[in-house]
Amino acid sequence: MLLLATSPGARGGASVLEIAKTAFPRYGADIKATFSLPSFNANFDIEKLEISNSELDNRLKEIVKNVQF
Q: CA–CA separation, 40 vs 25, rounded Å?
């Protein structure tokens, strides 16, 4: 499982992501990686439906590329 979180704040849903990382394995989930997108409104282009921050976009693409399911 790849867990993703985002929020309008600078932490990008970090609290919820940590809760999910702890809880999901109790139900059999095999968490392979996580990604948090901070400051959603500043880092996501709603018209293009893509991450507008190239550093964050590249980080997510690298995670997806390396996750083995």
A: 27
Exposed/middle/buried for 33, CB within 10 Å: 0-12, 13-18, 19+?
middle
| Maximum distance among all Cα pairs of the chain, rounded to whole angstroms | 38
Predicted confidence (pLDDT) per residue in 22-45, tens digit? 999 999 999 999 999 999 999 999
Q: What is the dihedral of CA 61, 65, 68, 69, to 10 degrees?
A: 60
The DSSP symbol for 60 reads H
Bridge partners of residue 5, in order along the sequence: 36
Whole-angstrom Cα distance, residue 38 to residue 42? Answer: 8
